[in-house]
């Protein structure tokens, strides 16, 4: 078989299996919000969101309003939380029936000035020091909102739920969130629903699942901890093809800036994927290998924008052969992240939307 270009396989069976694994940590009535920001962690937001909608997932979350608009325009009907709306987004949020995160008085004032009716989620900063109100803002929030506001959930975000050496910091965050919730309930004379846990929060602090959890990386098959390597199944595989093979002799160079100079004869394979597709230029110069016919071939020279070169000296292969860059069997996004000095999240979300996505549904 001759393969056509670079492609990403999205394995829906693995997606389902990851949801089922996460559910083992949850009470049957805890709602699940799946995070589909950043092109669904590289996987393709429309396909993935449609799948979640069919799989009885309760909620979706995106980072930016434009991501939510795209989902609505593709017919997604689940409630969608916009985690990081900008000051002027509320006309779109209202029009597309999205639910904003309200995280500052600047945003709140603009939201209230036009009397939008959409429900919203109120975010509190409990120690991550990114977005959110502080506990001391509760009185002022009451002055702005009064008892009849459309607050649907209170929420916060943990900064180190994946790091058990930072357990006391996480417990501090949880305790502060509980305190804030109590203060909000007293101030507004009602019991607000709330959500706090991300994937590692679900795995390590499931007692605090409250009414809903927010999972991203877990559903895509990564658990931030080797303990979970067996349990989660990477959803996304990245594969390519050998476009051309040629031989270089001693003294010849390969690629830009003569990044590799041969000291003997080498067989070089050209692969149609580059740093514009999400393969960091730092992975050139032999730092990583990809898999061809179950053999490992190292990068050669500098990775270009749209292609890279592999040393296939001594490797049985021909033009048109499959190249496996990442999958659940050979090397995962986490493995590549280890080599690149980053995390699975960055490897996945760096994958360009120009790469063709293929759905595997069996
Ligand atoms: C991205 C994000 C998540 C998802 O985190 P994972 O570690 O991928 O599960 C949850 N909550 C917020 C606020 C986020 O920004």
- Any idea of the CATH topology of the largest domain? TIM Barrel
Count of domains: 2
Shape: elongated
What is the annotated CATH architecture of the largest domain?
Alpha-Beta Barrel
Could you give a quick summary of the protein structure above?
Helices cover 28% and strands 23% of the residues. With 362 residues, the chain is an alpha/beta fold.
Throw out a few tags for this protein.
single chain; alpha/beta; binds pyridoxal-5'-phosphate; 28% helix; 11 helices; TIM Barrel; 19 strands; elongated; Lyase, Ornithine Decarboxylase, Chain A, domain 1; 8-stranded parallel β-sheet; 362 residues
Could you walk me through the main structural features you see in this protein, from its secondary elements to its overall organization?
By secondary structure, this protein is α/β, with parallel strands linked by helices. The chain has 2 domains: 209 residues, Alanine racemase (TIM Barrel), CATH 3.20.20.10; 125 residues, Lyase, Ornithine Decarboxylase, Chain A, domain 1, CATH 2.40.37.10. It is built from 11 helices and 19 strands. The strands form 4 sheets. It has an 8-stranded parallel β-sheet. A 5-stranded antiparallel β-sheet has the order 11-14-17-16-15, with no helix packed on it. A 4-stranded mixed β-sheet has the order 18-10-1-19. The longest helix is centred in the middle third of the chain and has 22 residues. It is elongated. The model has no long low-confidence stretch (mean pLDDT 96). The site of pyridoxal-5'-phosphate (PLP) has 11 residues, from β9.
